[in-house]
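In this supplementary section we document a worked example of the pipeline. Step one takes a protein sequence of length 445 as its only input; no multiple sequence alignment statistics are reported here. Step two produces a three-dimensional model, which step three serialises into structure tokens for compact storage. The input and output of this example are shown verbatim.
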Amino acid sequence: MFTASITRFVTACALTALVAVGAHAETAETASQPAARPEISDLAAGRLLMTAGRFEDALAFLEQARPADEKQAIERHFLLGAVYMRLGLPREAAEQYEAILVIRPDLTRVRLELARAHYAAGQDDKARYHFQLSLGDKLPSSVESVVEGFLNAIDARKRWSAYVSLAALPETNAARRTDRESVQIGGATFQLNQDAREASGIGTQLSAGGAFFPTIEDGLRGHFALSAAAKLYEQSAWNDIALVSKAGLTRLFDGGSASGGVQAGRRWQGTEGFQYSVGPWASADYRLSNRMRLSASATAEHRTHDESDDLDGWRLSLNPTVRYVLDSQTVFEVGPRFEATEARAAHRASRMAGIGVGLSRAFESGITASLSASVQRQAYRADDPLFGERRRDRVMWLSARVLHRSLQLEGFAPYVGYTYERSSSSIPLHNYDNHGAILGLTREF
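The serialised model returned by step three reads:
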């Protein structure tokens, strides 16, 4: 204990000497008096040791520092992040910068350091996210150039990505059925049994996926991906499971990428197989400016169904999206959606057009809130043979989600949300409302 005290005293004296450079000389009378023991805080000691290049010593002082207020807490996290980066520990550094953004999400300098730490740790998706958000603020042109360089480097070295999400999903109308008790068919009234009417339920929602991008040559990558999504209920007849695999190529260029290939899918509804699909796909992503990004995807899949060949045919879809960074905390998205579905039975074929908007903002305490809304209209090609009129649907979705990034369990962040879906149809049997809540965990790799 005595040795430790001496070491601490000597170190404090040395640090005091660093800050005493340029001080006025004391008078001979004052100099002859016993010097008072220097007092220096752990935070100040860590700061000075870091300046002197003694990073391990700085780490020891900073780890035991006890900040007196929020300002000192932010400084401690920032210095610890810088020390961890110098010691080759970027994941630990990222944790420190994340802790600052929980308190002050508006600090763009910290967001840039966090992005750099994620990049050094090989967490490219997280690095890209924070680099792009930082471009929402007015950065010096030299800094913008550096950020662009990082984004291009991330695209160039990307080899794989993965995500997983698990949630509980209570819904007021999980089967998406009408609340009507009867319908009119050919002028006659028919009563609907309970199995054809709305019913509530609690589902488990699971989504996961991964992609691998092997290098073929400079600027050209392979593209192999597998994704799965499932909604499972106690009433197994409501289950919906989908599996999609992709294979193709990705061409990289300054500011973006273009991909294309072939995909195959399998879907199950209830407890039985429902549909197979296969066809080409294409996607592109391009930075229009520092704040604006354009992405688009297109698919053409031929679908065959297990039980009803009336539904068999091609389905074409196009989904462009513009993403605009308003500032370092706020992102706005808007995108139309178009879909054309062919089928052997004309009344099963349809055309659909819609549009969606979304807004996401990061707040203090590590909370990110997202709001989104969309509306679509779908018109079928021929009259429904049962109801004697052509089906036209209008469907609206609203959703709100709150993600808490600072509360993580093994890298999984919790989120809660609310959804509302409403369908208005020319055929009343297809009218429904559905409210849902969601409580889940999500993680990207």
